Structures are given as structure tokens and as C-alpha cells.
Amino acid sequence: xxxxxxxxxxxxxxxxxxxxxxxxxxxxxxxxxxxxxxxxxxxxxxxxxxxxxxxxxxxxxxxxxxxxxxxxxxxxxxxxxxxxxxxxxxxxxxxxxxxxxxxxxxxxxxxxxxxxxxxxxxxxxxxxxxxxxxxxxxxxxxxxxxxxxxxxxxxxxxxxxxxxxxxxxxxxxxxxxxxxxxxxxxxxxxxxxxxxxxxxxxxxxxxxxxxxxxxxxxxxxxxxxxxxxxxxxxxxxxxxxxxxxxxxxxxxxxxxxxxxxxxxxxxxxxxxxxxxxxxxxxxxxxxxxxxxxxxxxxxxxxxxxxxxxxxxxxxxxxxxxxxxxxxxxxxxxxxxxxxxxxxxxxxxxxxxxxxxxxxxxxxxxxxxxxxxxxxxxxxxxxxxxxxxxxxxxxxxxxxxxxxxxxxxxxxxxxxxxxxxxxxxxxxxxxxxxxxxxxxxxxxxxxxx
Length: 448
Ligand code: NDP
Ligand code: 2IT
Hints:
This protein is of the alpha/beta class. It folds into two domains: 3-185, Rossmann fold (3-Layer(aba) Sandwich); 206-363, NAD(P)-binding Rossmann-like Domain (Rossmann fold, 3-Layer(aba) Sandwich). The protein has helices at residues 3-13, 18-36, 39-43, 46-51, 99-115, 136-150, 169-183, 203-220, 238-249, 272-283, 289-295, 329-337, 353-361, 369-372, 375-389, 395-417, 426-445; strands spanning 55-64, 70-81, 87-93, 122-127, 159-162, 230-233, 253-259, 262-265, 301-304, 317-319, 342-344, 365-367.
């Protein structure tokens, strides 16, 4: 297969979708060798069918704000691939959302879900609606208007949405409520639900905890312990906060957080008490990270409009947990110069291709999001299993299964990504393992 020709063709057909093309290019480059070993794949043009989503729904979402004005946003659901299970993936509400971003996320989700060992296909949806500064009732009306269009296309065995940026327990609750009203059915069609109506214990924590478990597996390959390590985190939402919570419990130091307005850097690390203050600030009060810096100028410095990476000083580990393309080549070089020897991605595609090349050239431990952040969707899969059984498992049981799944994902990366010199190329490993399962299923199911 000619990778260059393949990518050029996709670029010609989807010229205005840079994030989608970036995600596809990375995967296609790393599976090209394996793909070529199976001529049967090429005969049925399997790769193209795997890269182009099965279908995309696009719709207008009209809702009424608190002043009585009618507002219009765009809504989308990208159903990428359901060869190994029902479509599954989160919903993102953020002003930056467009089709390119949701197509990249749905594409990545397909490989990630394949790695989880569970039966889930790949999807993603969302809207350019920004929840920031909206009242609770505005959020509710928006969620209802969004689901009023979406409900026809989803279902417990069809497509199961969940949270992502800007969508947490509150939004999932409102969407589930409207879905239930429209369909007159109580089913596990959304995951990340409240604990009283079918949600799974550990789902809120799962992405952050899972990323730390994956990191521990990576560190173990070099005999390194987390205790005392200095960790730079970006973001301060669901993924960032639970990553920090787990890291603190294991004795690591948290050096930074960020949000879309700027970053805080605490050179001596933050205490458990300070973490709890940040947790409440972001979850209970929906505040800005700058408010913590204003209150604690002795603990940290605030860098407005900056990402943390160039300001963290000496650092051992980076866990980008905000958004795509938030670590560029310069950031990667700054992290390496600061002593960083491991990067484990909580966000989806946070590192640019140039940054990934820097990490791999330096032979540091580098885990792409589709492996490292798969804990969230894994526990979503466990929530689906519990809903289907009408049962709820204990926190301990879910957490143990999560640990096992992250270990299994790590094993798959080692199996498919170990290079001749022993370096584990987690990008190649994750892409290859994720690809092969979906590819085998597609081959078995014919051209559909
Ligand atoms: P949240 O909405 O809870 O938090 C997102 C955080 O990232 C906030 O601190 C937000 O700041 C910041 N952020 C968002 N967009 C930008 C931007 N364009 N520039 C700078 N900062 C930004 O989302 P999650 O924590 O759930 O998601 C974070 C990342 O993790 C995303 O990439 C998501 O796709 C990924 N992910 C999430 C999973 C989950 O289960 N929730 C599972 C796997 C991956 P602000 O508040 O200012 O917007
Ligand atoms: O990117 C992701 O894996 C998520 N946002 C979680 C998706 C899910 O269905 O739980």
C-alpha cells in the first residue's frame, strides 16, 4: 500500500479537516507494514472503509436562553465503526467543536475501544454550544433540544453516548432524562449516569485513575516507582482532577494544572488540602484555576494564556489532560530539557506529530491517549454490562476490572510495539493491536 497516495487522496476529499487528517495519518503510518502483510485487506479496500465514518448526523439545535432569546447551535454524531460492538463514545460541548474534531475523536475512539477488550465500536458527538457561564436551566434546555434530534439515532444496542469536554454528570443526567421521555424506555443508552439511576461506581474517576494505572505499567518496564516523582498535569477538569487524586495517593507530586485561560505552576507541589480546594473550586463552584493562584501566591505562579510545559522547572512525568494539540514541538523539547522521562496522555491527541517525534527520538516512555486514557470508556463498557444485568458492582470490583483492563492494554502495546532495540513504541503497539481486531471483524462481516 502506498501510504502517501492514500493520505493525499483523503486530503483532497476532506481538505478542511486538519485534526481528522492528523489522526488518520498517524495511524496509517504506523500500521502500513502490518496492513501490507495481508493482501486480502487491500483487495476489499479495508483501510479506506476503516478511515471514513459509517455515517454522520448533523443538525441544528435551537434553544431558548434565560432572557427569552432563541439561540442556534450545531449538533453532530459521528458513527464511525461498529464492527466489534455498538457505536460508543462521548459527547463534547465546547465552542471549538466542528466536524473535523469530532471525526478525529470518533476515529481514535474506534481503535481505543478495540484495545479495551470489550465489545464497543467507535463514535463521537457534540456541539459548538459552550456551557461556560450558562445557568442550570439553560444547560437543561440545551441538552433537551440536543437529544430531541439525537434520540432517533441512539439506543442501548445501537449507539451509547457519554461525557467528554463540557459534558459531565449533570449534562448526561439531563440528556438521559429527555431520552427516557422521548422513547418511554429506561435503558442504558447513556453512560456516566448518576449512581441512583444506573451509573457505575468509579466511572467519574475512571479516565484519570486508568491513566495512572497505565503509567505504572509503563514505569514498571524500567523499574521506576511513582513515589516522589514530579508530575506536570494540564487541564483541571474530570480527567486532570482524578489523575491528580490518584497520583497524590501514591506519593507523587503535582506541579501544575491549567484551564483555557492559563496555567498554575507550584514548584514545590501541592498538598492534599490544596488539591481538595482546587477540586471543590472546579467541581462545586465551576471556578477558574486563576482563583486558586490569587488565593495562594506563595504556593504557585499563574501564567495567563500559557500552557504549563515551559514553566514547570524540573519535571519527571507529563500527563496532558486538557485538549488536542496542546503539546507542540517546542513544548516537547522544553519538557525533555526539564528531565521528563514519561508522557502519558489523558486527553485525546494532545501531542502534535512533531512533539511525538521528539519524545520517541529521546526514547522516553510515551503513551498515546488511545491507550492511556481508555479507562474512561472501559468503565463505560462496564456500566453497559451492569445495566444489561440490572445489577451494580462494588467500587472495588469495578476498580479491579479497570486495573486489569489497563494492564491488558499495556500488554497489547508491548506485544505489537516492541522494536529491535527493545524500545516500546506505544504508538505503533496501540494502533496495530487496535487495528487488527477491528480489521478481522470487518473481514468476517463482508463489505457492509
Ligand atoms: P472537562 O470539560 O471536564 O475538562 C476539560 C479541561 O480542559 C478544562 O480544564 C478546560 O478548561 C480545559 N480545556 C478544554 N478545552 C481547552 C482548550 N481548547 N484549550 C485549553 N484548555 C482547554 O473535560 P475532560 O476532563 O472530560 O476531558 C479532557 C480531555 O480528556 C479531552 O481531550 C477528552 O477528550 C479526554 N478524555 C475524556 C474522557 C472522559 O471520560 N471524560 C475519557 C478519555 C479522554 P476550561 O474549563 O477553561 O474550558
Ligand atoms: O474519549 C473518551 O474515551 C471519552 N470521552 C469517554 C467515552 C465514553 O463512552 O465513556
